[in-house]
Fold:
Amino acid sequence: MYRKFLNARSPLRLLEKGLHGGLGAGNLGVILAGHGVGKTSFLVGVALDELLRSGRVLHVSLSHPVAHVRAHYDTVFEELAASTHLEDEGLIHAEIDRRRSIRVYPPDSLSIDKLRDAVKLEMEAGAKPSLVIIEGFDFAALPRTDVEALKSLAQELDAEMWLEAASDREREIGVPASIDAMGALVSVVLALEPGNKGAVRLRALKDHDNPDVKDLHVALDPRTLLLVRN
Structure:
């Protein structure tokens, strides 16, 4: 089974048709959602998409222990494998594990310097990440200097970097003021929202410099945050 069929259920495939080529290396993306809507599952899906394209992922979590993060990856991968009748599931799963690093920090303990140290350790081990996921680091609460440092790190790595932001609204009208104030430092903002018939709706709020994002939305499976199967 070719990996492109596994990747076909990633929400990024449909969004990339509307987004200007996706997030892109050297850029920051933010996923915005309320508590329990599925930010972690979405970020894991983004990471698996990169891993299945032979990229390397550094997943940093301030929200969950390592075992919990691994369980998220296993759940989403197993759903992908089942929906595509994957024959060499064990081999691909093992390769994904080798190309992914998980680093966990206590809540409110991660600094930009610690993140740089984590990246340095990965690079010294010959595992330069092409994607960095930062979970539990509320983007909306970060000072501009930290966002500038994150952008600089993404550019130095030539990697995509995805973070999350908490929302207290069921549906966002537009990019929240705290994120909008960062201007060009943030390239893409996506929102997860409750959808119809139990599905989760993924909607673009910002697409680089594209002023028209009203039609950029897809429906996702509420358990895995993958595209709903037809």
